[in-house]
Amino acid sequence: MAIPYPHFIATENAAMDAGILLPSSPSVVFTQDDIKKIAAYKAVEYVESGMVIGLGTGSTAKLAVDRIGELLRQGKLKDIVGIPTSKITHEQALSLGIPLSDLDSHPVVDLAIDGADEVDPFLNLVKGRGGYLLREKMVESACKKFIVVVDESKLVNYIGGSGLAMPVEVIQFCWKFTAERLRRLFEEAGCVAKLRTFGEKEEPFVTDNGNFIVDLYFERSIGDLKAASVAILQLAGVVEHGMFLDMATTVIVAGELGLTVKNK
Ligand SMILES: O=C(CO)[C@H](O)[C@H](O)COP(=O)(O)O
To answer: Which residue out of 70, 118, 136, 187 is catalytically annotated?
Structure first.
């Protein structure tokens, strides 16, 4: 959806790089898509020739991957190796001619760029509402720098504070049992646990790794995030959760008045 951002200020270079015409009159209105693109392009300014780059997944990350492909084609970036965080990003990067590898061959990643679903004041994240959290976490925890690009609607006071899902990837075997154990862990926070489904037939969503997603919704804060993370990961049947704690090194926030860069 294109939400107008009437007061957004973009530098001439940032807007022109993103192919967006700069306002010739003060009444011009940027859309949310415009500013997402400007923010994604800003993140790609951190990419240097010769780097191993973690390629994120989602509508924001897609714009950054497109931009990396464009700079490679133009010869402005050279010798890049991309490590995709999903099958869909793998396909996108292949189609753009970005040389690809994996963590087995490149266990140290210089930089990753990705979107997020929530960002708290300490730069902790919720990711995985697209369903790609496991590979994203593997790649992004192997990074020296992890740059996150969001619009200001993703900023929350505390993790879970948007009232939207905190995804947990679980194995398919007895997923109801695992979902109930997850719900009980956070009973005091008013947790509801739901299997992620898609389509009219409400088929279970299956991740790139062949697992299901249980989405947790909280009425209240879950408190100590590290303790919550440990408790979730201790449950047999859980593969990974969508809290990315202490991982982001930079968050670029696109807001009504322009870009804000928050560093750890
Ligand atoms: O974690 C993710 C996918 O698993 C995405 O990065 C997250 O959902 C944000 O997506 P978008 O940029 O489309 O808002």
So the answer is: 136
Q: Give me the pLDDT at residue 257, please.
A: 79
Q: Decide whether any atom of ligand 1 lies within 6 Å of the 82 Cβ.
A: no
| Nearest atom of ligand 1 to the alpha carbon of 242 | 1
Q: Which residues pair with 204 in a beta bridge?
A: 197
Mean pLDDT of 99-115: 98
Active site residue 136: yes
According to DSSP, residue 22 is labeled P
Q: Which CATH number fits domain 4-155+246-263: 3.40.50.2300, 3.40.50.1360, 1.10.10.60, 3.10.129.10?
A: 3.40.50.1360
Phi, psi of 146 (to 5 degrees): -130, 110
Q: Any idea how long the chain is?
A: 264
Partners of residue 244 on adjacent β-strands? 125
Mention every residue, 6+ apart, whose C-beta is less than 8 A from residue 117: 125, 126, 127, 128, 129, 154, 162, 164, 165, 242
> Which CATH class, in words, describes the domain spanning 166-240?
alpha beta
ipTM: 0.98
Q: Report whether residue 60 contacts ligand 1, using a CB cutoff of 6 Å.
A: yes
User: 130: CA distance to ligand 1 center in Å?
Assistant: 5
This prediction has a pTM of 0.93
114 lines ligand 1 (CB under 6 A): yes
